[in-house]
């Protein structure tokens, strides 16, 4: 007699309980029913879910680190066991596990102990074509008492799976900015995982404009006492684009502070944005102060913005915690105010969008990067100038 197991399968919902493994064989190919894949574009992400060697190997994309080597900010990292690679990084999905396996050597940027690195470290990553599949592991390490900014700038075309491991040592202050300005046929899935140790500070910014599908998922552990984390994001989705971020902020240490703010704009038929925000305040994270918010501005009909904030609290001894989410079209009162002062409707709409998104841009603190992001917003608005304004909010 055949015995059928009728025990219901309960999917993993709690962010902290998701399984992880360095072996791709431990992950089943996603079907779209999984909590971390159900809102993703699996059809276009398919090339990143195949575990096979590529012809170009690790050199499937071009990396330009500028003068970082001459400044002594690059460290050789050869092999999967080269410390500190893998110190805190744990692949949580198939694409990330494949990237770990297929990229033996990491790009390791290190800010020297006790030093303030004045000029930002800019890593330019250029794809060689949408049919070229690349994998990468990048380690960004801020040594104790150091201070500086690292910018990851993506352009060109590629099918690119990327792991970024961020280590903020005691008392360090680090800013990481990841700019996705790919061509429209690019596919990019990135897992950013960070730990902030005692008294450390991390500002992590994701800015996505280009690419067919861009999925950048930051995960930050505030592990040490008085650790702080700011997670900011900006996206502008055009017709047919899918821009996604699944954000996880885990308060572990005592008196940690977290601030999450992601903003997005959408225009054109089929433009899609996905934001999932998970904040976990652990049982030992007394004195925590945490807040997360996502806002989306719908500029035309035919778009869709998914926004899902989640908050878990395992201790009652906190300073504060909260979350918020809003998706809607233009504020008619703002438009009326501007038009009543002689500003034409099209220009008024432009000013509203710029004012909405520039809040994130101004948090970067690096003038050349802020100027580039502001120019990208202007270019997106020029592209959408011929599109009719939205008559209702996206859902």
Task: Provide the fold topology.
Layout: H1 42-45, E1 61-64, E2 74-75, H2 94-102, E3 107-111, E4 121-142, E5 147-168, E6 173-181, E7 187-196, E8 201-210, E9 213-222, E10 228-237, E11 242-251, E12 257-266, E13 272-281, E14 289-298, E15 304-313, E16 320-328, H3 332-339, H4 345-361, H5 367-383
Parallel strand pairs: 3-4, 4-5, 5-6, 5-7, 6-8, 7-9, 8-10, 9-11, 10-12, 11-13, 12-14, 13-15, 14-16
Antiparallel strand pairs: 1-4, 2-3
- Kindly name the structural category: mainly beta
Terminal CA distance reads 50 Å
Q: Give the count of structural domains.
A: 1
Give the SSE string. Answer: HEEHEEEEEEEEEEEEEEHHH
Shape: globular
**Helix residue percentage:** 10-25%
Q: Mean pLDDT across all residues, rounded?
A: 91
Largest sheet: 16 strands, mixed
User: What's the Cα radius of gyration?
Assistant: 21 Å
Q: Give the low-pLDDT segments.
A: 390-395
Number of helices: 5
Strand content: 35-45%
* Total beta strand runs: 16
Gist?
The chain is built from five helices and 16 strands. The chain has 395 residues and is mostly beta strands.
Describe this structure in words.
With 395 residues, the protein is mainly β. The protein has one domain (21-383). Helices cover 14% and strands 41% of the residues. The chain contains 5 helices and 16 strands. It has a 16-stranded mixed beta sheet that branches. The radius of gyration is 21 Å and the shape is globular. 48% of the residues are buried. Residues 390-395 have low confidence and may be disordered.
């Amino acid at each position: 007699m055949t015995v059928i197991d009728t025990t219901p399968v309960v999917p993993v919902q709690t962010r902290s309980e998701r399984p992880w493994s360095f072996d791709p064989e431990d992950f089943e190919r996603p079907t779209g029913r999984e909590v971390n894949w159900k809102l993703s574009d699996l059809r276009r992400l398919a090339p990143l879910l195949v575990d096979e060697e590529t012809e170009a190997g690790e050199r499937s994309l071009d990396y330009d680190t500028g003068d970082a080597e001459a400044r002594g900010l690059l460290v050789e990292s050869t092999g999967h066991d080269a410390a500190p690679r893998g110190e805190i990084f744990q692949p949580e999905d198939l694409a990330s596990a494949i990237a770990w396996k297929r990229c033996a050597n990491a790009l390791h940027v290190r800010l020297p102990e006790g030093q303030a690195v004045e000029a930002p470290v800019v890593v330019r990553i250029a794809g060689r074509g949408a049919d070229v599949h690349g994998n990468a592991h990048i380690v960004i390490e801020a040594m104790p008492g150091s201070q500086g900014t690292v910018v990851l700038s993506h352009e060109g075309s590629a099918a690119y799976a990327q792991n970024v491991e961020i280590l903020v040592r005691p008392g360090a202050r680090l800013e990481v900015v990841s700019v996705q300005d790919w061509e429209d046929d690019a596919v990019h899935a990135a897992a950013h995982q960070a730990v902030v140790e005692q008294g450390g500070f991390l500002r992590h910014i994701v800015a996505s404009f280009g690419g067919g599908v861009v999925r950048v998922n930051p995960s930050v552990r505030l592990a040490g006492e008085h650790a702080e984390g700011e997670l900011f994001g900006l996206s502008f989705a055009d017709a047919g684009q899918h821009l996604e971020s699944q954000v996880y902020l885990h308060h572990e240490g005592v008196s940690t502070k977290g601030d999450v703010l992601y903003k997005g704009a959408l225009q054109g038929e089929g433009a899609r944005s996905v934001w999932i925000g998970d904040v976990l305040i652990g049982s030992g994270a007394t004195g925590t102060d945490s807040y997360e918010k996502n806002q989306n501005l719908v500029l035309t009909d035919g778009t869709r913005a998914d926004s899902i904030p989640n908050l878990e609290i395992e201790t009652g001894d906190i300073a504060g915690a909260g979350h918020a989410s809003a998706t809607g079209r233009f504020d008619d009162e703002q438009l009326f105010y501007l038009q009543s002062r002689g500003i034409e409707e099209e220009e008024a709409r432009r000013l509203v969008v710029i004012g909405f998104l520039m809040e994130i841009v101004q948090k970067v603190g690096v003038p050349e990067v802020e100027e580039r992001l502001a120019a990208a917003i202007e270019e997106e608005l020029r592209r959408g100038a011929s599109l009719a304004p939205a008559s209702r909010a996206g859902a």
